[in-house]
Design goal:
Number of strands: 14
Radius of gyration: 29 Å
CATH architecture of one domain: Orthogonal Bundle
Helix content: 40-55%
Strand order of the largest sheet: 7-6-5-11-12
Largest sheet: 5 strands, parallel
Number of helices: 22
Structural class: alpha/beta
Distance between the termini: 36 Å
CATH superfamily of one domain: Isoleucyl-tRNA Synthetase, Domain 1
């Protein structure tokens, strides 16, 4: 990359001119501000102490050195200690001629560098909700961005299919379901299970209220209500592999899995491997026992086993209860070991909400204490909450923002908007349906992914489906506009740009953005942030629309200029499509 080349020669310049040794990757290289001439700017202030000269004089010396050493540099100018570098037109023409393809910026997969990423991780007692949408979209997009950086990515899902919460749905179905199935109810299986989870909670609260009214303390009522005791008994039967309990569990889980698969298909996410907690919850005990044998962990008088993390600024963490049963941390220790032995990944990324920050700090610290070198591979991709304008989600009360309902609402809104703007007048029914689904999912995914993962966000469906502004449909429409232009021009992708072609400032702005794309992919991978891709592609679409409005393309009479502008348009469409694919967003050929 040219930026790396410039940084390297700047490092050579300060060494030769001022006997100052600096690493090339520490050189501050930025885009030149639009009001100044140039493409790249070097801040020379870190070198003035060694040069013993004013910033302007230092910048002029380094600029002269670079101009003599790098054939790509046409000239330079200095503004208050900032060195602005102007790149030769031939470089930009060669750049377009050599890189104008859909594969530009995407690296080949290195089979020797595996990254494992876990996302989704739903419970089988209810359908996916808005929080799951952010989790799934974020996990899938980060996986694609890592692939684009040359990583071999394994996408995994750990389904929470056991525990007291699952038994609550099962028990409610047994008591009040009358044999209801997805077929007889016309409900998706995950929605059916969720219905009985809510029903359990309704009856459970009623029992608690009755007990309190009869003089029982609230805390005692919550523990002794008949329904919760029955659910606990059902869990004991499940753990004992009682045939009737297992049969109900398998039946209801199969309904839920089928429902999840439908939602995943609509969202456009998938997995390479799915783990089930029912198969992994006993893992990790041997790790804890080894920790005791090696005097790394400690056993208390009640026989419970703990990790002392006070020296690391945390507290003591329970790993095995006094009765020998596991906690979630125990299972996660075992699952991490299982995955490492299976895939030997350089990174294990867990896409989990920021309320679990402490859990993953502990997981990594405990594994390091136990001597697992690969503990450093564990990374928690922590993300913030997502809400609708109406407020937070409360699943137990049945007011969850359901993923399927939200997707359907988005599709309906996209349809209404497309009809209003005349976007589907030339489409038959199947084409129109496909288009408004594409617009809906583009709106949903882009609106969520354009926000830094670590930030809480408010998702507004109405704002997301807008053909103006920083939205998915705006970028999709820009792509469709370019494809329409290229079809009309009968563009030949083999046409090369003549080196005599003049380049206007607005055209150079687009070229500079296209040139940045590989660096944006690299930065997004390092930071595990689809927001960097999203905001880049919006800037590109915005810049192209400005160019399209002000400069003739198809109607340009000079064939040389016309070919250049069409080639620049085609290059822009390729990068828009590539970037949107990394976000999991389809771009329509026409709108």
């Amino acid at each position: 990359m040219l930026e790396s080349k410039i940084s390297q020669v700047v490092a050579e310049a300060v060494k030769e001119l001022y006997t100052l040794i600096v690493e090339a990757n520490t050189i501050i290289l930025q885009k030149t501000r639009k009001e100044f001439e140039g493409e790249f700017t070097v801040a020379v202030f870190p070198f003035v102490k060694a040069s013993r000269k004013a910033p302007e004089a230092t910048a002029n010396e380094i600029g002269s050195y670079l101009k003599n050493k790098l054939e790509e540099i046409e000239d330079f100018n200095v503004i208050k200690g900032f060195l602005n570098l102007q790149i030769k037109k031939d470089y930009w023409i060669n750049f377009i001629n050599q890189n104008n393809s859909e594969s530009y910026g995407i690296n080949e997969i290195n089979d020797n560098n595996t990254v494992l990423i876990e996302y989704s991780s739903p419970n089988t007692n209810k359908p996916l909700h808005l929080g799951h949408i952010r989790n799934n979209l974020l996990g899938w997009s980060v996986a694609e961005i890592l692939k684009a950086n040359g990583k071999k990515v394994v996408k995994v899902n750990l389904v929470n299919d056991r525990g007291i919460h699952i038994c609550k749905s099962m028990l409610a179905w047994l008591k009040w379901g009358n044999g209801e199935t997805p077929e007889t109810s016309a409900l998706k299986g995950d929605h059916l299970a969720g219905k009985y989870y809510v029903l359990f909670d309704k009856h459970y609260r009623a029992e608690i209220a009755t007990m309190i009214a009869n003089g029982t303390e609230k805390e005692t009522a919550e523990k002794q209500a008949p329904l919760i005791l029955e659910a606990q008994e059902m869990l004991r039967k499940w753990e004992a592999k009682d045939p009737e309990t297992i049969e109900i569990w398998e039946k209801m889980n199969s309904w839920v899995y089928a429902g999840f698969d439908e939602t995943y298909l609509r969202l456009g996410v998938d997995f390479d491997k799915t783990y089930h907690e029912s198969s992994t919850y006993l893992l990790g005990k041997h790790i804890v026992e080894k920790g005791i044998a090696d005097n790394v962990l400690k056993k208390k008088d009640d026989q419970s086993i703990w990790a002392d993390l006070t020296a690391e600024g945390l507290d003591e963490k329970l790993l095995l209860r006094s009765d020998g049963t596991s906690v979630y941390m125990t299972q996660d220790l075992g699952t991490a070991e299982l995955r490492y032995n299976e895939f030997e990944p350089s990174q294990m990324i867990y896409v989990v909400g920021n309320e679990q920050n402490y859990h993953f700090d502990v997981l990594k610290l405990v594994l390091k204490k136990l001597g697992y070198d690969w503990a450093e591979a564990i990374n928690h991709l922590s993300y913030g909450m997502v809400e609708l304008p109406a407020g937070k989600m409360k699943s137990r009360e049945g007011t969850v923002v359901d993923a399927d309902d939200l997707i359907t609402e988005m599709e309906n809104t996209a349809y209404d908007k497309a009809v209003e703007l005349g976007k589907i007048e030339d489409f038959d029914n199947d084409e129109a349906k496909k288009l408004y689904h594409t617009i809906a999912m583009g709106a949903l995914k882009y609106f969520i992914l354009k926000v830094d993962p670590q930030k809480n966000m408010l998702f507004n469906p109405a704002e997301s489906i807008d053909f103006n502004g920083n939205t998915g449909p705006f970028i999709q429409y820009t792509y469709a506009r370019i494809k329409s232009l290229l079809r009309k021009a009968e563009w030949n992708t083999n046409v090369k740009i003549n080196h005599n072609t003049s380049i206007l400032a607005k055209e150079k702005d687009i070229i500079r953005l296209l040139h940045e794309y590989p660096a944006v992919i690299k930065n997004a991978g390092e930071n595990r942030s689809p927001a960097l891709i999203a905001n880049f592609v919006f800037e590109l679409a915005k810049e192209f629309n400005s160019f399209y409005q002000e400069i003739p393309i198809f109607k340009e009479e000079n064939e040389e200029l016309r070919n250049f502008r069409l080639s620049l348009s085609a290059f822009t469409s390729n990068v828009i499509k590539s970037a949107m694919m990394l976000l999991g967003i389809d771009v329509p050929e026409k709108m």
